[in-house]
Amino acid sequence: TSAGDAWPWQQWCHDQGPLTYGMCTTKTRGDLPTVAPNDSFEVSWLRRFVAFGDPIEYKIAQEAKFWHSAIAVRHLSSSMLMLFQYEALNFEPSSFYPAVSPAREIIWNNSAVVGWLPYMDPNEWQLNVKMGVVTGVVLNKWLDWVPGFAAQHPTYNLWNVWDRVGMFPTMRDKFQFFRDSCCHRFTEDGLSAFHTAGADFSAVTQPLCRNYFVIIQDTLRPLTKVNIHHPKEWSRVVDFYDGLQHLVGKKMGKVADMVKIWIGLVLKYGYTAYLADSDLSNYYLVHLSMPYGVYLLQRMNLPWQTGGDPKECWSQENVSMPQDLLMDTTSLVVV
């Protein structure tokens, strides 16, 4: 692209349609442009409430601060704009866990895609943070990164696994053992990838707050890979997901209700839970520790930022931090 040209986005847009929410998919580097190295581009981080179609579910999303995030790139000398998002192709509460067939087969419906739109409606986003301006050299490196993220995250997963100490943002890296695969993972990793490519976003010192659904691991019992060929081990995985079908079938008034029902299920299974890699090639057994599973509002872990505490995002959003979380984090002593 050049400053004088119209934005000919159609030549890079593939697989656009209702199944991808109108987005152009990003499977290879050929699905994205290569920009002029000396041009300038503004990068923004965007956030809005999750757009559930059901009015009750949308109300839950608003009250719980259940967000969706994206990254926008705007050429400062032309009409070029690209809005990048990671989306589950079937984004409903029932898509977060698989179904189990009568033949006891696990059936996933959580395919996801990284895509982009050649436009953006600013009225759809409650928060728009200008991260900074990058050169075409930096942007091209970042565009090289995008298809790799898409390939490594073909399915959607909300859950992270942390040690209890990981609830402190400054300690998360050392005590994080399994990472989610969701829109916020894309934007958190995407902003870090911009930093690696040479972007200077150091002027952004405010916490960029996102949702985390976290399973708390027993410190003394590490995450273990399931032997899917062992009948007894695999049967327990199937039983666990079969139980989760009853969870996602319930109408719940709060995100906290979902977490509490999930906790009840994992207690039934001996303080354990199961997770799958984004490519569904491996399953893992997690031994749990108090408080078992939590829903958190916390800052993204970005390489140019330091500090942070468990309460800051709750305060920033004018939401009271749940008392059980407050007690649990204040009881920890980090050396």
Q: Given the C-alpha coordinates, what overall shape results?
A: globular
The total strand number stands at 14
Q: Largest beta sheet: what is the strand line-up?
A: 1-7-4-3-2-8
**Low-pLDDT segments, ≥5 res:** 326-335
Number of helices: 7
**Which sheet architecture does the biggest sheet show?**
6 strands, antiparallel
Q: What's the end-to-end separation, in Å? A: 52 Å
Provide the succession of SSEs. Answer: EEHEEEEEEHEEHEEHHEEHH
**Amount of beta strand:** 25-35%
Overall mean confidence score, pLDDT: 86
Structural class from helices and strands? alpha+beta
Radius of gyration: 21 Å
Q: Tell me roughly what share of residues is in helical segments.
A: 25-40%
Which terms would index this structure?
six-stranded mixed beta sheet, alpha+beta, globular
Describe the structure.
Helix content is 26%, strand content 26%. The chain is an alpha+beta fold. The relative contact order is 0.15. The model is unreliable at 326-335 (pLDDT under 50).
Would you spell out the secondary-structure blueprint of this structure?
Elements: E1 24-25, E2 40-49, H1 55-64, E3 67-75, E4 81-88, E5 99-100, E6 106-107, E7 112-117, E8 127-135, H2 136-152, E9 159-162, E10 176-178, H3 183-197, E11 209-217, E12 224-225, H4 231-248, H5 255-268, E13 272-276, E14 283-299, H6 312-316, H7 323-330
Parallel strand pairs: 9-11
Antiparallel strand pairs: 1-7, 2-3, 2-8, 3-4, 4-7, 5-6, 9-10, 11-14, 12-14, 13-14
Helix pairs in contact: 2-3, 4-5
